[in-house]
Amino acid sequence: MAIKLFHAADLHLSRSERDYSLTVLEELVYHCRRLGADAWLLCGDVFDTHADLMALADDFRAHLRELGEVPVLMIPGNHELSGGKSLADLGPLAVDEPGSSLRLLVEAPYTLHLPRGLDVEVLAVPFRRGYGDYPDWALPPRERRWRVGMLHGVVNGMSYTGESAESEHAVIDPDLFTRLGLHYAALGHIHVRGEARFGECLAHYPGSARVWRRGETGPRRASLVVLDDDGVRVEAVDIAAAGTYRALTVPLDEQGAPLAHDNAKALLQALGEQQGPQDWIRLELGGFVEARTAVDSLRRSLERRGSRMFRRFEVADDEVVEAERLRGHPLVRSFYAGWRRRHAEALAAGDEAEVALLERVRRLSLEQIHQRLAEQ
Question: pTM value?
Fold first, then answer.
């Protein structure tokens, strides 16, 4: 008979984004029930900080009650232990309440948990700042068909893409999976989805369950793990409430207006038709403009309107260059001398096509000159 395990990590429940992060938790609970999972594995960094854990523990438990008797197994990650906290400081989550399906597994170096009625045993390893002593761990023989591990850290030998803002890493030697006799290693800590096979063990990161930091592009996901006669397989579960992260380049004309839109309102209207209110949007303005004041006005208008449309909204203008600042350079002065003459002739002749072409030449030439100067 197949065993279904729901695997999620790195939810980062926080007081600063309480409604958003709890909405993501609510959807995770929904998927766990919808998929008929036999157990839910939460592999660390469920809370953003230890203080968030203390403040949101009751909300967390309240959502889990929707699962009834489905066991929820959780290990702490480095964020639950932030501020120098230890496994003994996990407070309300460490208490096994009557009728609660939540089990916080914190015994060092591991907890061997045997879920009732399932032919699987879970070997849960709470976050530690070093796993190098694993050859000395005393391991019991396997009693059930499947052995699943829960760990939080960076697996040596697996490749990752995307930036990492984590200040604390713990490296896991994949030989640990072999010594533990694992068929599946449920991992947390890396916010990018990925997996690798080490011998008989499939090691898998579901990725972060919500958009926690800048640069986390693509859908946020959890995983459904199926153990059956065919082995171990993993299915992605998209989390719609998590939203997405998108960084968009917005080129500006010489007057500091968006090239593809009439104004800030039109730009945001088009963006709102493509993106949702839970998304994190970053607009990166760029181009050569006559005056910086127009860009400042555009940025303020975008920030005022966009902050009401999206969960997070940022506007960067580091790539905007004020043309006036380049004109003192000899190369730019030489270019402008010839360009102004031809531009004036085209205007006098009423040649609109030539005027438009010269405007484009001006823009591209300034971009090339600016790039050449930056490389010097």
Answer: 0.87
For 149-181, b where at least 16 C-beta lie within 10 A, e where not — what string? bbbbbbbeebeeeeeeebeeebebbbebbeebb
CA angle 17, 165, 209 (to 5 degrees): 50
Calpha distance 156→163 (Å, rounded): 17
Cα separation of 208 and 213, whole Å? 10
Specify the DSSP element, H or E, that contains 76.
Answer: none
Say how far apart CA 24 and CA 240 lie, in whole Å.
Answer: 8
φ, ψ of residue 308 to 5 degrees: the values are -90, -10
Q: Which residues contact 178 (CB under 8 A, 6 or more apart)?
A: 198, 199, 200, 201
Span between the terminal Cα atoms of the chain, in Å: 67
φ, ψ of residue 259 to 5 degrees: the values are -60, -40
Q: Give the SS3 label for residue 316.
A: strand
The per-residue pLDDT for range 6-34, each reduced to its tens digit, is: 999 999 999 999 999 999 999 999 999 99
Q: What pLDDT score was predicted for residue 40?
A: 98
CB of 121 closer than 8 Å to CB of 114: yes
**Closest by alpha carbon to 124, among 148, 159, 144, 146?**
148
The CATH class given to the 3-242 domain equals alpha beta
Nearest in space to 74 (alpha carbons), one of 145, 147, 7: 7
Q: Assign 163 a pLDDT band (cuts: 50, 70, 90).
A: very low
CA distance 94 to 75: 10
The one-letter amino acid code at 362 reads: R
Sorted by where each begins, the domain ranges of the chain are: 3-242, 245-375
How far is it, in rounded angstroms, from Cα 110 to Cα 93?
Answer: 17
In DSSP terms, 4 is beta-bridged to 226
Beta strand extents in the chain (DSSP E only): 3-8, 39-43, 72-75, 102-104, 111-113, 120-124, 146-152, 154-155, 171-172, 184-188, 194-198, 201-205, 221-228, 231-238, 245-251, 280-289, 312-322
